[in-house]
Design a protein that fits this description.
Two copies of one chain form a homodimer. The first copy, chain A, has 273 residues and is of the alpha+beta class. The first copy, chain A, folds into two domains: 106 residues, Alpha-Beta Plaits (2-Layer Sandwich), CATH 3.30.70; 147 residues, Alpha-Beta Plaits, CATH 3.30.70. Chain A has five helices and ten strands; from the N terminus they run βαββαβββαβββααβ. In chain A, strands 1, 2, 3, 4, 5, 6, 7, 8, 9 and 10 form a ten-stranded mixed sheet that branches. In chain A, helix 1 crosses helix 2, helix 3 packs across helix 4 and helix 3 packs parallel to helix 5. The radius of gyration of chain A is 20 Å and the shape is globular. In chain A, 47% of the residues are buried. The interface between A and B is medium-sized, with 33 and 33 residues.
Chain lengths: 273, 273
Amino acid sequence: MAEAGGAAVLPGTRRWRLLVAYDGSGFRGFATQADPGVPTVGGALAGALARTARLPEPPPLVCAGRTDAGVHAMGQVVHVDLPEGYDGDLARALTRQLAPAVVVREAAPAPPGFDARRSATRRHYRYHVWNAPAPYPLLSATAWHVAAPLDLRPMAAAADALIGERDFRALCRRPPGADAAHPIVRRVLDARWREAPDEDVRGGRLLRFDVVATAFCHQMVRSMVGVLVQAGKGRANAATVVGLLGSGSRAGAPQLAPPHGLCLVDVGYDQPS
Amino acid sequence: MAEAGGAAVLPGTRRWRLLVAYDGSGFRGFATQADPGVPTVGGALAGALARTARLPEPPPLVCAGRTDAGVHAMGQVVHVDLPEGYDGDLARALTRQLAPAVVVREAAPAPPGFDARRSATRRHYRYHVWNAPAPYPLLSATAWHVAAPLDLRPMAAAADALIGERDFRALCRRPPGADAAHPIVRRVLDARWREAPDEDVRGGRLLRFDVVATAFCHQMVRSMVGVLVQAGKGRANAATVVGLLGSGSRAGAPQLAPPHGLCLVDVGYDQPS
């Protein structure tokens, strides 16, 4: 994706901060792709921004978390630099063009020095598992259906082993060109499972995994959920997680959890934003 | 829709009871239509039943609540008469063909005299309203977005006025050929609003209307929600509801709530089923 140049705001432009929710089902992720025919959240947003602010071409965007194909967001944060003259109701204008798949919940000029990705100090993702013999129609786009009964207690214990500052190489997709010997250190602040108290579901349990970290590497949450669900089946435990992280290799990691159960809940910033 | 002949089970057949969940978004309602190209839940189910039980043609079905186009179900109950010889795992076979849009949660031979519609003594519907300035992507297929702030207290008071045995003509679509002077009496057992405690939603409130009646007439829940949302805006109250029901005429009823917020939660039977 073409990107705005970090914290440097070009003369004659003003940086805007957008709070964006989307249903990722119909998109090939957030990041725009070389082929403009591939539907992406960023591409849709940039196109709507160009129409709204009458720009000659879609502007580059920077987001806090580059969600993959099929991943949803309630609180993605995006920045974009627009000509200083623009002062319309950006949230309303964008939502009118993009809803219901994409909704811009808020849009306002960003505080000085704000960068949606670099200023972010905390990301919160949520993953839903529908644990029941049969799939559930109204959850099929937002929860992973796992038919085998899961035991939450070992899942919670294994999740505890993820908390802290660790090398997450074994649970990340290596960035293109990166050295396999290089650790990928991230700090996980919280990771917990619980049963969602939603009366809307019948015939099974909706399990919810909330994980907060200063930052995530690629496919990290889906890798975590993959191993934690194995723990729920009695095929892994906290020691497995510790061993896996220690190995520094993806070879021993279980299957990735599918993308559609994942949602970027919100992004935290230390500076007022 | 072609219908099985009430409680009479033909010789050589056995009656099955199915518990069915569906996402109504892609269907033109439950009831099969004359044009077989129109996608209906009943049509999909009957087609899958014919394939599974090797029937020469899709069998007639009877359901407890004939949901309209776009309406969802967690616990629709259906009966169908199949040749006595069939004894496969019907729920699994049907779900394999129809998921994720339609899932057969349970399937078993019905108790003697069982009729999915006539034996039902209680239907429970739920309606969701997403009350927030902006729409919400992950709720756009299951909740009605109402942007104006709603006050739950008058909505609850007006809902109370619906409880009891009353003539609901003013809140129903009259059946074809029915006499407008004829009352349509139904008994509402419960009708209440509350805010869903779902942490999954941000930037607004998810309001949930639960209504239980011995039976409903056509479009009754959506008519109720239409007038109750007016109450939430301060444009109607319990007296309006009483007056509307007393008028016996749909002329004074507010706009119907859209179908996609509605879900058939479950159906009760007095006999063991």
